[in-house]
Amino acid sequence: MKFKGTVHRYGRDIDTDVIIPARYLNTSDPAELAKHCLEDLDTEFVNNVQPGDIIVADENFGCGSSREHAPIAIKAAGVDVVIAKSFARIFYRNAINTGLAIMECPEAVDAISNGDIVSVDADAGTITDETTGETFTAQPFPPFLMEIINAGGLVPRWQKKLGKDA
Q: Domains in the chain, please, with CATH?
């Protein structure tokens, strides 16, 4: 699985209430959630994000509540992968369950700037800042997690395995 996009850079402790504010939790429609992704942190995010873009953040990304809405909003907004120094554990699992690729790589986070073009080879665990030419190594996903992400999430993966339509 390979990704390439423009970086949207954020700090530490980006919680799920900032990723998708609670006032929008009356829907689970991905397109509607995407319209409000990160709006309390970055009012221009939804206007600037393009399909395939990448979020890079410091420690504890996705802390706060356990809502699945947060990774759904990020993915529906067009982000292909989130790279952070660390993730809140429940966000990490919710991201996998909803098919959002995430990678931990503190060295890459320290070096990558907002607006850089970054390519990611999730199978190999390499992150390359195309803007600076620097390459970093992250832990690649094991095959069973890649299968979930490639399928678009845990439920679609099982539907495919069971031969059922979504």
A: 2-162 (3.20.19.10)
Enter the pTM of the model: 0.91
pLDDT in tens, the chain (166 residues): 899 999 999 999 999 999 999 999 998 899 999 999 999 999 999 999 999 999 999 999 999 988 899 999 999 999 999 999 999 999 999 999 999 999 999 999 999 999 999 999 998 999 999 999 999 999 888 888 888 888 777 777 777 778 775 5
What CA–CA distances, in Å, run from 119 to 7, 9, 77, 97, 130? 10, 15, 18, 23, 7
Find the DSSP H helices in the chain.
16-19, 30-34, 45-48, 69-77, 89-98, 106-111, 143-151, 154-162
